[in-house]
Design goal:
671 residues; alpha/beta; Rossmann fold; 3 domains; six-stranded mixed sheet
Amino acid sequence: MKRALYSDPLSNFYRTSAEHIRGSIATGHGQDIVAEQTVAWQTQVEILQQTPLSYSGGHLFFEFLIPRMGRRADVILVYRGVIFVIEFKAGEPKYLRADIRQTEGYALDLHNFHQGSHNKTIVPILVATHAPEQEWQLRFNDHNLSPRVAAPICANQDNLAAIIEKIATQLALDDFNVADWESSPYQPTPTIIEAAQALYGDHQVEEIARHDAGAINLNQTSHCLDAIIHDARINRRKVICFVTGVPGAGKTLVGLNVATRHANAVDEEHAVFLSGNGPLVAVLREALARDQVSRDGGSLNSARRKVETMVQNIHHFRDEYVKSELAPHDKVVIFDEAQRAWDRDSASDFMRKKRGQKDFDKSEPEFLIEVMDRHSDWCVIVALIGGGQEINKGEAGLPGWFDALSIRFADWQVYYSHQLQQTEYAGGFVDCASLDTRGHCKDALHLATSMRSFRAEYLSHFVHHLIHNNPARAVDYLAKLKDNYPLVITRDLSTAKDWLKGKARGLDSLGMVAASDSLRLKTQGIFVKNKIDPAVWFLNDPNDIRSSHFLEDVATEFDVQGLELDWVLVAWDANYRYINGAFEHWKFSGSKWQRRNDESRKRYLENAYRVLLTRARQGMVIFVPEGDDADGTRLCEFYAETYHYLRQCGIPELAVTGEASPKTTPLLSAC
């Protein structure tokens, strides 16, 4: 894969015309290019050529791929042992906060996700060409998770070369082999939002997937599905593909890749991505629409309408085709978390009571296959199957799909991997051999490599043991986390917020979460009953008081399931309290606490905290209130033992006066 659209030693760069370099970049771009973009490239080349650097042994890259986000940095300059990440804003008279965050974000992602950059010194520079010159100094933070990435520096077109020379002289580092650095593997872990934006922006899945030897499967799975879809169309067959994978392996990413590659409504193989997770659908739609407008211009409403045809709520899809006997427009549908589709009893009960369908008597898998079976020629269902999850009452699981295929749809071809029959996916109740000649085993349909955040690799194990009252095992896993994943606890909300704000750098996201029935957190100013708009909360600018960054509005497990933030504040109420060596399950109703006695409701509360405690990609602070013995609903004893139990799990205390180690450099301090 080509990392940059233009690459050359500085000695060659200075001898080559700006027009030739601009043309080389445009040729490598391979997409429709607006005039403003070619002017921007011309400006960048001219600025860099007008004041040649003193050392010609450096190397220059234009439009260098940044691994996590699937975007390209304007310029990467490797010069005297330093990697300069340079972002240009042509004609800009100010150093804008969003541009500084973007530049620093590129540098951090290069450091974190490009193997050759892990041990290199990286300096991000924002060049606002027409902005006034500002004082600057080179600053690093030894206590930050990325100590070799400098705080961002602001420059204009006149002083850029001088700043680069001064930094290189001050650091006095040894040169390194640029070719080896460039070709070292990527290990990106994009959020689902970043991955979706990259794919929708015509990037290939290879550009946002890991490129180490153990992670080739994601690309193979995508190509395998494309081949199956194409074969189904050519040979007029009806097909269902089951895609399995280890937790965090990228099943949703594969589904989105299929949907974006076939997003054109006139494409014969047009695909739609369906999910029952309402907030996830809302956030993905808005993220894709905004990203399209930022790249291509145009109306936001128009972009939203286009995205809505590609990402849909599965319940809306179901309800539409209950009313109609027509075949869907889409020939390819991707069902996310397909194992969670309802069984016959739950689906029939819901449709009778909520949709007035008195004669509805089938499982959700059976009905969804039935809808696609209305096509007279061909169609494909891609069912994304999660593993290692507890199947709740009313969910059909994988057997629900196989029962429907066996009883009613015997002419459908079925594709799967050997792992499909494992207990964690099928519960031991699926026999692929019974499919006979219509069954096709493809090992590429199993995703074997986790793509979870490199910092949070052991987080789910830690949380599992914490919730199941096994503090000794929790301590073991926290020991594996602590060097890369800061996790602290405090009794003071202001201290928790300050810590979170101090940790976030660049494009890092942060937010506050709490369980949906944490009603007594109201006294702390945490109102879980205030409804948020998930798209606004996740996507809006940090300066927007409605955004997650502001730490004013709290999101619940319903808002954040399936989504992630970089840094999270988890507020812990007395609904899940640790008393006399065990967790107790409570619910606040009216003006008092009531015990939860129903086992399924207990499991729900545990799962709510499991979701909240696994949303953070880079680090987390847990806030447990002190309580107030003057308030019978917030007695200190409701919270004290919970706090001590969490400390027993190994979580270090964050003192009210602040952390022992210094906070990270504020966003604008370097400029």
